[in-house]
Design goal:
With 178 residues, the chain is α+β, with helices and mostly antiparallel strands. It is 30% helix and 29% strand. It is built from five helices and eight strands. Strands 1, 2, 3, 4, 5, 6, 7 and 8 form an eight-stranded mixed beta sheet that branches.
Length: 178
């Protein structure tokens, strides 16, 4: 079954707190209950893949200012039917940042988050079951352009903590990255 690799990754994952543990279990339940969980046509919600990108010295993280959501977030997006969420995270990070030096640091899940996406045009409000992976990139590499992105910026961990008020970003910042 094409959902088994994701289920296996989720079952091997060790959440950092009870909130993330609850979201991980809810994601497992969602994937088991929805054979089309990777398709955005599933209007209640769907699997997305994201990249937590850090600098080689681990002192900086790369965030994008998402145009539609008007928030600083990690790069990521829809699986669009692709059950390989690592590949989804890499593809989305490349599309949104233009970076070519992206290096996957682990095939293991780095973070799990469930968040609501507001209704827009003919798409109702729905949930993103976001599976995040750890990447590294060169901060000296220039960014590309994307219509989805208002801004791309490297933040020191301290600056990100002071300027970003997204619970999932703050949770990822607290995780030790080796």
């Amino acid at each position: 079954m094409y959902r088994n690799p994701l289920l296996s990754l989720l079952q091997q994952y060790s959440p950092v707190d009870t909130h993330e543990q609850t979201m991980t279990q809810e994601t497992i339940d969602f994937v088991r209950a929805n054979p089309n969980c990777f398709d955005r046509s599933l209007l209640v919600g769907h699997i997305t893949g994201s990249a937590w990108i850090c600098s080689p010295d681990r002192r900086q993280v790369l965030l994008i200012h998402h145009r539609k959501l008007d928030r600083w977030l990690q790069p990521g997006g829809h699986a669009d039917g692709d059950p390989d969420v690592v590949a989804v995270a890499l593809r989305e990070a490349q599309e949104e940042t233009g970076l070519t030096s992206l290096k996957l640091l682990s095939n293991a899940i780095f973070d799990v988050d469930i968040h609501e996406i507001p209704a827009r045009k003919n798409v109702p409000a729905h949930l993103h079951y976001d599976i995040r992976f750890l990447f590294e990139a060169d901060p000296a590499e220039p960014f590309g352009n994307s219509e989805e992105i208002r801004n791309i910026k490297w933040f020191s961990s301290e600056n990100a903590e002071q300027q970003i008020n997204e619970a999932s970003i703050l949770r990822m910042l607290r995780k030790k990255v080796h």
